[in-house]
Amino acid sequence: MQHTELEKKILTISSEMSAQQIIWRRYLHQYPEISNNEFETTKYLANELKKLSIKTKKLKLPTGLTAEIKGKYPGPIVAVRTDIDALPILEQTNLVFQSKNKGCMHACGHDMHMAVVLGTAAVLQKMKDELHGSVRFLFQPSEEMPPGGARPMIEEGVLQNVQMIFGLHVDPHLKTGKIGLRDGVSMASVTDFDLIVYGKSGHAARPHNTVDAIVTAAEVIESLQKIVSREIDPIDSVVITFGKISGGYARNVICDRVHIVGTIRTLSTKASKDVPKKVKRIAQAICKAHGAKVEMFIKGEYPVLVNDFSTNEILQKNYISLFGKNKIEQTAQVLGGEDFACYLEHVKGAMFRLGVKNKKIEADKPWHSPKFIADEEALYFGTSLISASVIDSLGKLSR
Ligand code: NI
Questions:
Q1: DSSP 297-330
Q2: pLDDT tens digits for range 265-297
Q3: Distance from the CA of 373 to the center of ligand 1, in angstroms?
Q4: Which residue from 226, 228, 298 is spatially nearest to 261, judged by alpha carbons?
Q5: Rounded CA gap, 238 and 228, in Å?
Q6: Is 129 exposed, middle or buried (0-12, 13-18, 19+ CB in 10 A)?
Q7: Angle at 158 (CA atoms; ends 161, 303), nearest 5 degrees
């Protein structure tokens, strides 16, 4: 392929970084930490950035950090975000660098994201002279657990003067060397909520003197599914899932309290606002009909993720000129959520998918699987792409 001098430089430095990126990635993989507990991860990242002579800044949040590289020329700021948290999963791979924090695993590839973004920081630090502005790196805690780390970071001002933001997520369904892009709505809104149904306890054989919270809760759960089938435009995708339900004391005691844990996913902002209200209305009405009471608690909300067309254009153009055509796939819409969406409410940007699928090394298991493996060859592709896109976007935005 014909590459410009700038592209050659990006590809060369990125490829020189690969060995170091594998070291970073493997270390992070060995010491995963769950959401909001990324203390050692934060220290490690700060230390590695310091070694690269990159300025870091602590957050008011207990974990996570930002880093910034000032370019040679004045100009705007673009941001690059990585999440840093892992999942409470017991790893079942045979990797030599398996998790040493038992019961905790980077099963969503956030270790890869960190290695890509650290590598990008290293590349751009060496290419400061090409930057018309600055690049800010956001190492964000708690992506996996709504309300998530994005919102509090935004409140702290991490997006101040930022004009464009890039994010990435590894994709085990996409072959290494490929990336996925999608304009507009790409991922769902998330509303995590709890319902608590209160009844009146009593003897199992005397239901007429009680209010059975289990029977009432059963009716609530079943009726709430009718929101999707009967109250939402069938073109508009909505999911209501209850992942956990608990309550009761013994076989012969009527239960007076049932705790239901649910999540709502939607692909439209309208539905994300409407569905929680409908849940409350129906739950209250059913409980009232049976003499029970209900409380609803919203535990966390992520908005719909809307990728910006012009940001995707920069990613696409740069990926094609670095690695050629036929390496880009259109990502399908999914009802999964991602708090990168919060940044996109304030500044234009896009999250791309980085292919990490490689059957030969069993890197083809889905996200959150205890056997999840990501192909490290992908680090190079992600790093070159973000480095090139940052330089390109700063050039465009500063014009
Ligand atoms: Ni993830």
A1: EEEEEEPPEEE-HHHHHHHHHHHHHHH-SS-EEE
A2: 999 999 999 999 999 999 999 999 999 999 999
A3: 13
A4: 298
A5: 6
A6: exposed
A7: 100
Ligand 1 center to 318 CA (angstroms): 24
* pLDDT score for 399: 84
Q: How far is residue 391's CA from residue 395's CA, in Å, rounded to a whole number? A: 6
Residue 70 CA, ligand 1 centroid: distance in Å: 29
Instruction: Kindly indicate the confidence band of residue 167, based on its pLDDT and cuts at 50, 70 and 90.
Output: very high
Q: What is the DSSP letter of 337?
A: -
Residues 6+ apart with CB under 8 A from 377: 176, 177, 358
CA of 264 to the centre of ligand 1 (A): 18
- Our separate counts of H helices and E strands in the chain read 9, 16
Going by their DSSP bridges, the two strands 162-175 and 73-83 should be labelled as: parallel
222: Cα separation from own chain's centroid: 30
What SS3 class is residue 97? Answer: coil
Question: Ligand 1 center to residue 187 CA distance, Å?
Answer: 12
- Phi/psi-derived region of residue 157, left when phi > 0, alpha when psi is between -120 and 50, beta in every other case: left
The pair phi, psi for residue 315, each rounded to 5°, is -60, -45
Q: How many residues does the chain have?
A: 399
Quickly count: other Cβ atoms within 10 Å of residue 9's Cβ: 18
pLDDT in tens, 328-367: 999 999 999 999 999 999 999 999 999 999 999 999 999 9
Q: Give CA–CA dist 395/302, Å, rounded.
A: 31
Report how far residue 40's alpha carbon sits from residue 29's, in angstroms, rounded to the nearest whole number: 12
How far does the centroid of ligand 1 lie from the alpha carbon of residue 257, in Å? 34
AA identity, residue 186: S
Euclidean distance between CA atoms 53 and 68, whole angstroms = 10
Amino acid at 197: V
> Alpha-carbon distance 329 to 285, whole Å?
46
Q: What is the whole-number distance in angstroms between the Cα of residue 110 and the centre of ligand 1?
A: 6
